Amino acid sequence: MKEILAIVLSFFSLFIKEPQTNIKGVILPHHELAQELFHTSFERLQKVVDPSTIVIYGTNHYYPEGMTFTTTTDIAEKYQITNTLADDERIGKEHSIQTLVPYLTKYFPKSKIIPIIISSTYDLEDLKTKTAYLTNKLPQDTLYISSVDFSHNKTTSEGLLKNEESIKAISTFDYKTLLDFKAKTWETWYTSHGGLLLNKPDLQGTSYVIGVFK
């Protein structure tokens, strides 16, 4: 779960400079069961943002012991992010990225997509440095997506309770709590669980939190 915390922490630090009235970032799941929530969320986003660039921070599921950042060869060469692994194959097979790509190309066909997967062995200072570098390098209208599934193997009631704990930490920008488990405004859009989507309350499934940073 450490890489999930890294993604959220890196995501938060993108937004700590000035208050924003427009949406700058969004947390989305990457579990395919949540496709109905994907469509609903992207339809809402499409009405209020038109980013030239979209950065997806995803979980590094298959190579968790890798470098802090892994991206494609094209992105690594174009943006010159230091100490970043360029590996098209890893990005191509990583579902925390690839699950969302079809939705991005559908709803934001003109946006350039920058995929980045974050390892659980990240170095915090390295993470902050890379995040700051990207913030300064990319256009002001960039939309940042944190591709994160929340609690796993929990019943619906357990998962939703865990979601409330996560939402509280996120909405109050409680870094200490996030590291133990800055945009100015967090707005929760949806909190859900696989059991709700399948109408199976006892399902030992995955929970989802969807919301935006302004």
Key words describing this protein structure:
eight-stranded mixed beta sheet; 214 residues; alpha/beta
Describe the structure.
By secondary structure, the protein is of the alpha/beta class. The chain has one domain (2-197). Helix content is 42%, strand content 20%. Strands 4-3-5-2-6-1-8-7 form an eight-stranded mixed beta sheet, sandwiched between helices. The radius of gyration is 16 Å and the shape is globular.
The major pleated sheet works out as: 8 strands, mixed
Overall average pLDDT: 78
SSE ordering? HEHEEHEHHHEHEHHEHE
Distance between the termini: 26 Å
The dominant shape is: globular
Q: How many domains is the backbone divided into?
A: 1
List the uncertain runs. Answer: 15-21
Please give the number of β-strands: 8
Helix proportion range? 40-55%
What is the gyration radius calculated from CA atoms?
16 Å
The number of distinct helices, counting runs of at least 4 residues, comes to 10
- Strand percentage: 15-25%
Structural class: alpha/beta
Which strand order does the major sheet show? 4-3-5-2-6-1-8-7
List the topology elements.
Elements: H1 2-12, E1 25-28, H2 35-48, E2 53-59, E3 69-71, H3 73-79, E4 85-86, H4 88-93, H5 95-98, H6 101-107, E5 112-118, H7 124-137, E6 143-147, H8 156-171, H9 175-180, E7 186-193, H10 194-197, E8 207-213
Parallel strand pairs: 1-6, 2-5, 2-6, 3-4
Antiparallel strand pairs: 1-8, 3-5, 7-8
